[in-house]
Amino acid sequence: MDISIIVAVAENSVIGKDNQLLWRLSEDLKLFKKRTTDHAIIMGRKTFDSIGKPLPNRLNIVISRSKDLEIEGCVVVNSLEKAIELGSQQSHKNEIFIIGGEKIYTLSEKLATKLYLTKVNAKLEGDAFFNLKPYENWTLVSSVSYKKDEKNEYDFDVLEMVKP
Ligand SMILES: NC(=O)c1ccc[n+]([C@@H]2O[C@H](COP(=O)([O-])OP(=O)(O)OC[C@H]3O[C@@H](n4cnc5c(N)ncnc54)[C@H](OP(=O)(O)O)[C@@H]3O)[C@@H](O)[C@H]2O)c1
């Protein structure tokens, strides 16, 4: 079972501001949808709030410290370990996705086996970050470049990396 982090990061490690994404990258969203559909996705409660609804055709698992939080269309758990256990039991796929945000990415560092990294060609002001250091020595599987256009605000590269 792969535990895959999927994240889009600006050049200065920023991933969000005021609990929102900072870019419109239509091609990256399409890739996100293609990769995660029919899989379990694990997110922090703040990232769920930012998205605002369960993502369709996926098992949505939300991590919160709250013992009585209920979210329609999602399973709420109190730890990353519980989220992974549940995701692997209930998904017939051999891959689970960690979709953010900062706190949950940090919790996942030691458990993750794969990284889908979108490097956004911009330096932006934000308040949520993804520190790349733990992944710098991972093995690069593929890298594809995309150009800015009317539906994609910035140039970006999509890297697939695995834990060596
Ligand atoms: N660029 C990208 O690819 C990307 C992807 C996703 C998100 N983001 C951005 O990331 C930002 C959100 O990140 P964030 O770090 O503020 O929030 P987050 O990681 O989405 O969620 C944090 C919440 O998770 C729960 N939590 C954290 N640690 C926990 C633990 N050890 N045990 C149990 N529950 C725990 C808590 O929920 P409770 O408060 O309910 O207890 C906490 O408030 C936003 O700006 C969003 O847009 C960017």
Give the number of helices.
4
> Strand-and-helix sequence, N→C?
EEHEHEEHEHEEEE
Number of strands: 10
Strand composition percent: 25-35%
The whole-number mean of residue pLDDT values reads 97
Termini gap: 15 Å
Give the uncertain stretches in residue-range form: none
- Biggest sheet descriptor: 8 strands, mixed
Query: Could you please say which CATH topology applies here?
Result: Dihydrofolate Reductase, subunit A
| Assembly status | single chain
Q: Which class best fits the helix and strand makeup?
A: alpha/beta
User: Major sheet: order of its strands?
Assistant: 5-4-3-6-1-7-10-9
Kindly describe this structure.
The protein is α/β, with parallel strands linked by helices and 164 residues long. It has a single domain (2-162), classed as Dihydrofolate Reductase, subunit A, CATH 3.40.430.10. Helices cover 22% and strands 33% of the residues. It has four helices and ten strands; from the N terminus they run ββαβαββαβαββββ. It has helices spanning 26-36, 45-51, 80-90, 102-108; strands at residues 2-10, 14-16, 40-44, 59-63, 74-77, 95-98, 114-120, 128-129, 139-146, 156-162. The longest helix is centred in the first third of the chain and has 11 residues, at 26-36. The structure holds NADP nicotinamide-adenine-dinucleotide phosphate (NAP).
Features:
22% helix; binds NADP nicotinamide-adenine-dinucleotide phosphate; eight-stranded mixed beta sheet; two-stranded antiparallel ribbon; 33% strand; alpha/beta; 10 strands; globular; 164 residues; Dihydrofolate Reductase, subunit A
